[in-house]
TrEMBL record:
<dbReference type="InterPro" id="IPR046761">
    <property type="entry name" value="Tab2-like_C"/>
</dbReference>
<dbReference type="InterPro" id="IPR009472">
    <property type="entry name" value="Tab2-like"/>
</dbReference>
<dbReference type="Pfam" id="PF20429">
    <property type="entry name" value="Tab2-like_C"/>
</dbReference>
<dbReference type="Pfam" id="PF06485">
    <property type="entry name" value="Tab2-like_N"/>
</dbReference>
<protein>
    <submittedName>
        <fullName>Tab2/Atab2 family RNA-binding protein</fullName>
    </submittedName>
</protein>
<feature type="domain" description="RNA-binding protein Tab2/Atab2 C-terminal">
    <location>
        <begin position="130"/>
        <end position="286"/>
    </location>
</feature>
<feature type="domain" description="RNA-binding protein Tab2-like N-terminal">
    <location>
        <begin position="3"/>
        <end position="109"/>
    </location>
</feature>
<dbReference type="InterPro" id="IPR046760">
    <property type="entry name" value="Tab2-like_N"/>
</dbReference>
Amino acid sequence: MTVWELDFYRRPLQNAAGDPLWELLICDSVGAFQFVTYCAQAQASASWLLTQLQSQLQAWIEAGHTLPDRLLVFRPQTLHLLETAGQQLGIAIEATRRTPRLKHLLVERSRQYATLTDSLEARYTGQGYQPLALDKLPPVPLPEKLWGDRWRFASLPAVDLIDTVSDRMIPILSVPEALLPLKLGLASTVPIPGVVIDGGRQAMRLANWLQQSQPVSLGYIPGAPDGLILEAGLADRWILTTFEDTEVATAGQAYEQHKQLSQGLHFLLVQPDDSGMTYSGFWLLKPED
C-alpha cells in the first residue's frame, strides 16, 4: 500500500515581488519520495493544487510505481482544498494527525527558511513560525445522551494489552500498527494506562460516536473541577467528564505518570458493563503534535 502525506499552507516566505507564499510539501510514508514547490497566496486554490498533484502522480506512475491509495492531511485549513482535488483524482483523502514523515520534514524545512534570504524563488520574512501549530478551540462537553453508567482509570502490562483484545470479538477496534507496544520498543512489563467506560445501554452508541470522532488521545486535566479531555479528529477537543473526587484525582495523576513511562501510549475501552464478557470498542491512543 502506498500512502502520501501532504501539506499545503502559508509559510513565512515571500517572492521577489513581496507576495506571501504558500508551500506544497508532499512525501510518501517511507521516505522514498519528496516534492516541494511554492505559489503566491493569490494562486493558492484547489485547481492549482490539482495541477501539481496530477503532475507528480504522472511522474510517480511513469517511474513504475502504483497510484497512492490514500493522501493524508493533518492541517484543517488544507483539508477542504485537498478533498476537492482528491475527488477529481479518484484518490481517498484521510484527515489524520498521524503524519510522522511529513511533520518531520516540516520541522526540518522550517529551520532552513532563514537561509532563503537571497533566494529569488522564496525569501524568508523573519516572522515567527511554528510549523506544526494548529489553533486549539476550547473543549466542548460530550453530549449527555452518549455518556454511560460509570468510568474508571485502569492499566494493563504491555504484554497483555494486545492479547486482551485479540481474543475477543469487538465491534469497533482501532489498534494502529505504529502504536503497538513492540513497535514503540516498550518492555513487556511496562504498564499501559487507560480509561474504561461502562456504557450500559449507551455503550454501542458511545463507541460509534467515538469512532466517528477519530480519537487521538485522552488526558487527565487538573482544575476546578478536574476533567478528562479527548483530543480527536484534526483539532477537536471534548470534555468526556468532570469530577471533584480527590481519590479519582490521585488516580488521574498516576494515569498521566504511567503515560510518561509508556511513551504516551494509552487506551480507551468502552463496554456495556464490568463483567469483562463483552467489549463495544477499544482504541490505542497516543498524543500527536
